[in-house]
Amino acid sequence: MKIGKVPENVLKRSVLRQIQTKRDEIVSGAGIGEDCAIFSFDGADMMTCVQTAAVRAAPTDSENVMGRLIGRCANNLAAAGAETVGVAIALTLPEETEEPELKTLMAAAEAKCKELRIQIAGGQTWVSRAVRQPVAAVTGYGRPFAPGTGQSGKKAVCAGQDIVVSKWIGLEGTAILAWRHREKLLQRYPAYFVEEAAGFDRFLSVIPEAATAVKSGVCMMHDASEGGIFGALWELAERAGVGLTIDLKKLPLRQETVEVCECCNINPYELLSGGALVMVTGDGAGLAAALEAEKIPAAVVGRTTDSNDRIILNGEESRFLDRPRGDEIYRQ
Known about the structure:
alpha+beta; Phosphoribosyl-aminoimidazole Synthetase, Chain A, domain 2; six-stranded mixed β-sheet; 13 strands; globular
């Protein structure tokens, strides 16, 4: 199989269909577009999320993977209406790993947790011949931003609702590409432009907009990450059981992303888009205004429909949204 997420048809056939055992305490579990599991104990919700990746102790291109994993967990939980309070970290290390490398990995994890006010609650660290570089699995644990605001208590998504996207798409992928291809980009663009693109990491948290959206009565949220905005929109439609119509020209895109993607021959709409939160609401203009009041850019980009069609409009042209493919970042 190709690097990245397992294809949707494989996921349905070989993973989801194998899950048969059910418990009443699990309100929401494994499924397409379901990034978190939601547990309910005597009416109190608890959410969990898992992220995993190979990591390096001393990245040369500023890819702090430990920080990214923790940040993605926090974003997934925020999209479920939850504040992340703790994480458990499992590290599998190759035999040749030295202790300073382990210490560096944990220092990077703690730095991100301190930034987001999250406690490292536990985990496991072990050495195995089966891995060639460290592999980390981060499990995040969260609670609703406010009582009764967890995703299990959300209003149903239906046709005719607005779809709102926060900040800009492609932020995470742009930052990674700008670091990986810094010298190539500097041959075409001024240094300040490349540095700005590489600094898009500062926009990756969606916790502030998720908290504002919850207060504004949002129906559903989904953070755009692997597969880009197109992947996020597909997963949201699958999860909600609705169609959608999206205006391509309204999808918010920074000029730095446009230029970096052009230079690297990358499709920005299928590029890692951590930092953008997709929200469904009955009042898109009101939600966008509430986010703007918190200095969070937001745009109404389309609406849900009562069909199964997922349509992208581009001026006079229209086409169907494709099933998500591998993220563009893996082409680099």
